[in-house]
Hints:
Layout: H1 4-7, H2 14-29, H3 32-54, H4 86-122, H5 124-139, H6 142-153, H7 159-167, H8 171-184, H9 188-195, H10 200-208, H11 213-236, H12 248-255, H13 264-291
Amino acid sequence: MANTASTVPGAAGPEEASSRLQLVWRRFLRQRLALFGLAIVVLLFAVAYLSPYISLWQYTQLDFNAFLEPPGGSHWFGTTQNGFDVFALTMRGMQKSLVIGLLGALMATALAATIGAFAGYFGGVVNTALLTVIDLLMVLPAFLIIAILSPSFRGHTWLIFVVLLAAFQWMVTARIVRGMTLSLREREFVQAARFMGVPGWRIIFRHILPNMASLLIIDATINVSSLILAEVGLSFFGFGVQPPDVSLGTLIGDYAGAALTFPWEFYFPAGLLVVLVLAINLVGDGLRDAFDPNTQGRA
Length: 299
């Protein structure tokens, strides 16, 4: 029974899956904008996490001899009115935003895949109950709910904030997964696995979800940029990452008022946020075209 995936007709075996991934990778390598976006994401990720070793200042350090100093010298992005190094603050903020985006995207996509597939495969009461949950969450104002709950987890781990962000990000994808599952469950290899006595949950994870891997990978990539922007919006209004920690959202919110007077405090974190989100979106577009070449050229 353990080798069902290789014996069921129509199910993708390891060799077939490997060759398809190689084909997708070759298509992705032909996407110049996507490769450029990937290089930017990797570069920003590396600089953000290596910054404590290459910068002369840490984000918690004060320079009492440099208040509101413009970029230059030992302070590459300048300093704040309190003497904090803007480069160190920005890199720390990017670390936090990247981790929140990546973890939240993985949680949201995994939740969408699991709930959507279970609803589509089992149908009946399971389908009705899960669709009710999906519809309820889709009409709830996520921003308002997280803002209301924010004081309750203030001072606790920031992972609670990530879980809340992911909890409101998966519903649309879950509906798409459910629709694809309704089609896949009638395929011959799924029917054969069912007749062989394979449990439903194993069929979902071994046969159904691997056949929509392209959708899930693209969805996870898009969710990274969406959740980074969501985190920035909530942190801008004080409902996200809390002091003494920082994120790009808290930096943009704290120094928005200095955009015209001391622009380096605002424009460095804001500019890097724009570059990061655009680069992730380029990677997402490249993955979409690599998995489905027929999408190229569509409006």
